[in-house]
Amino acid sequence: MEIVYRNLKPEDYDSLIELWEISGLPLRRKGRDSRENMIEYMKREPDFLIGAFDENKLVGVVIATSDLRKGWINRLAVHPKYRRHGIASELLKISEERLIKSGVEIISCLIMDDNQPSICFFQSEGYSSMREVLYFRKVLHPEV
Ligand SMILES: CC(C)(COP(=O)(O)OP(=O)(O)OC[C@H]1O[C@@H](n2cnc3c(N)ncnc32)[C@H](O)[C@@H]1OP(=O)(O)O)[C@@H](O)C(=O)NCCC(=O)NCCS
Questions:
Q1: Residue 105 carries which DSSP code?
Q2: Confidence at residue 144, expressed as pLDDT on a 0 to 100 scale
Q3: From atom 22 of ligand 1, which residue's Cα is the shortest distance away?
Q4: For burial by CB atoms within 10 Å, which of 35, 75, 89, 100 has the most?
């Protein structure tokens, strides 16, 4: 199996939604995950939306974001049939390199506390959890 890693393009949008769906990630198609939002982010930060492809089929994805000092790993997903082959690990490595190049000094990720595979994954990649931190937020609308 030869996996190719490249930046996502607008024409990958439908496969991206399909992949998140099959991977069990929640979708907000009218807001955060809308075609318009995704394509806008691809244009603004082309190096921060990265896909893993097996012969043109999208099998893994990650979105990196940066708030200057801190970088975030978001929406990481690998197709269930392609898991445990190091694809997420490679997507994370590429994201980290690009975030570090952009100047961030901390790389973070928010994970639901019952998402055991992701917890194990990030631990295996050298990330530590901060149990003492509570995540506070103000949600301005349900699709954000
Ligand atoms: C978490 C996820 C992205 C991992 O993808 P993956 O490509 O299978 O991960 P990798 O093959 O790169 O795993 C690297 C290491 O992480 C750890 N790991 C990954 N999945 C694991 C699991 N289910 N259980 C235990 N450890 C796991 C292992 O140490 C693994 O190395 P090994 O296979 O040599 O033992 C994938 O399970 C997934 O898409 N989950 C659903 C989507 C999700 O919840 N995303 C998180 C939102 S941020």
A1: S
A2: 75
A3: 117
A4: 75
Find how far residue 84's CA is from the centre of its chain. Answer: 17
Say if ligand 1 is within 6 A of residue 34 CB.
Answer: no
Taking 70 as the pLDDT cut, the residues of the chain under it are none
Contact by Cβ (8 Å): 105, 69: yes
Does the C-beta of 66 come closer than 6 Å to ligand 1? no
Residue whose CB lies within 8 A of the most ligand 1 atoms, among 50, 59, 62, 84, for a mutation test: 84
What is the phi/psi pair of residue 64, to 5°?
A: -100, 145
pLDDT score, position 128 = 97
Residue ID of nearest Cα to ligand 1 atom 15? 121
* Sign, Cα dihedral of 136, 118, 15, 80: negative
Helix (H) or strand (E) holding 133: none
Q: Which atom of ligand 1 is nearest to the CA of 110?
A: 48
In degrees and rounded to multiples of 5, residue 106 shows phi and psi of: -135, 140
- Using a cut of 0.85, tell me whether the model's pTM lies above it: yes
